[in-house]
Automatic annotation (TrEMBL):
Name listed for the protein in its UniProt record: Pyrrolo-quinoline quinone
Organism phylogeny: Archaea, Methanobacteriati, Methanobacteriota, Stenosarchaea group, Halobacteria
Pyrrolo-quinoline quinone repeat domain boundaries: 66-177, 197-296
InterPro entries, per database record: PQQ_b-propeller_rpt, PQQ_rpt_dom, Quinoprotein_ADH-like_sf, WD40/YVTN_repeat-like_dom_sf
UniProt cross-references to SMART domains, sorted A to Z: PQQ
Species assigned in the record: Natrinema ejinorense
Gene3D superfamilies membership: YVTN repeat-like/Quinoprotein amine dehydrogenase
Pfam families documented for this protein: PQQ_2 (PF13360)
Length: 387
């Protein structure tokens, strides 16, 4: 493992426009940016409670960081951690640390403030697996981390692994009967994991299965609170499950499946669907409160930024199952009030980037970040909050 402490030693990760907001206001980019870096193949971003911005790269190449610390105001890389060659997962963040795994069969725990390694541990077998085996981020859960290891081929066992937060010691391994269909969601007592065969299970913090439910169709990533887990299903429903028992508390009607994680915020549940809609439900009554028809399938979000909702539709999106990677067009970023009022719509086209399309959008801190094959972009906070 290597760590580079200064920007001067990591040339190639940061482009020449980083920190130069005045140079980024040209007509080629449709929304105001704080910065754009040459951070290649970004996997995700995260902000710690102390305000440290972190980014990871899913690139298999050794010189791409599994975790990097960035200056949130300029986009400059201040430190990086690299591991052996292999695709890398998105970041899990908790208690001032960043966690990630690599197909190099390595898991790392990094001090987010300094970039120093707390520990690294071997996780095998995943080296021979398809790249999607590291698609999901490790999940902090109190004094342990739950690691989802699940590809789309039958080349390694699908499983959830629990490791100790302090030193990475393996505490349990739970084998899954099918691949994960989306990212699990954490509650205070465990994780809710959706499977591609239409089943969902609750695994408590000791690795024991609390319940399993067959919901009959592939499921989305999980949005969870301590009492309820929310999933979109290919049965064209938003499902609310009681995390204590797995019982379906209510079903909200949609018009297609769901690709993205439902958002639970401010006593509302928000869900964006493949039916080109953004909806809000009352979790107490299960009633739909509002809907807005968008220009494409929702692939990321909605995300909460302050008192706004930000949703990405379109882009190139990987769907687990038989569909594979689907390029959706157009790619549009929407900003809504929480009452459903649409206040901004930003359309991206082929001229927005040098090549390719947006791969993801993610909220961190006070704004949204856009991940692209060749760079990472920080949307100016005022472009969201002052819209």
């Amino acid at each position: 493992m290597t760590r580079r402490a200064a920007l001067g030693t990591v040339t190639g990760f940061v482009g020449g426009v980083a920190g130069c907001a005045g140079l980024l206001d040209g007509e080629s980019f449709p929304i105001q940016r704080s910065w754009q870096t040459g951070f290649r193949d970004p996997s995700s971003v995260a902000m710690t409670a102390a305000g440290q911005l972190l980014a990871g790269s899913h690139s298999p190449f050794r010189d791409r960081p599994i975790v990097a610390g960035l200056d949130a105001q300029s986009g400059e890389t201040t430190w990086t951690v690299t591991v052996a060659k292999g695709e890398k997962s998105p970041l899990g963040v908790g208690d001032g640390r960043a966690y990630a795994i690599s197909k190099a069969e390595t898991m790392v725990s990094i001090d987010a403030a300094t970039g120093e390694s707390v520990w690294q541990r071997r996780l095998a077998p995943i080296d021979a697996a398809d790249p999607e085996v590291v698609e999901f981020a490790p999940i902090p859960l109190g004094d342990r981390i739950v690691v989802p290891i699940s590809g789309t081929e039958d080349d390694v066992p699908d499983r959830l692994v629990g490791v100790a937060r302090a030193d990475g010691e393996t505490l349990f391994t739970h084998s899954l009967s099918a691949s994960l269909s989306g990212a699990p969601g954490a509650t205070s007592g465990g994780v809710v994991a959706p499977l591609i065969d239409g089943r969902v299970l609750f695994l408590d913090r000791t690795g024991e299965v609390g319940w399993t439910r067959d919901l009959g169709a592939p499921l989305s990533a999980v949005g969870a609170t301590d009492g309820t887990a929310y999933l979109g299903a290919a049965t064209e429903e938003l499902l609310a499950l009681e995390t204590a028992t797995g019982a379906v508390a209510w079903r909200g009607s949609l018009a297609n499946t769901v690709f993205a994680r439902p958002l639970v915020a401010d006593d509302r549940v928000y869900v964006g669907g493949a039916d080109y809609t953004l909806r809000a439900f009352d979790p107490a009554s299960s009633q739909q409160l509002w809907r807005d028809d968008l220009g494409n399938a929702v692939t990321h979000g909605p995300m909460q930024v302050g008192d706004r909702l930000v949703t990405l539709v379109g882009g190139t999106h990987d769907i687990r199952g038989s569909s594979g990677t689907i390029p959706f067009s157009p790619t549009v970023l929407y900003v809504h009030e929480q009452d459903g009022t649409r206040i901004r719509e930003i359309r991206f086209d082929d001229k927005s980037f040098d090549s390719g399309s947006i791969e993801w959008a993610q909220a961190a801190g006070e704004t949204v970040y856009l991940g692209h094959t060749d760079d990472l972009t920080r949307v100016a906070p005022e472009a969201i909050t002052d819209a």
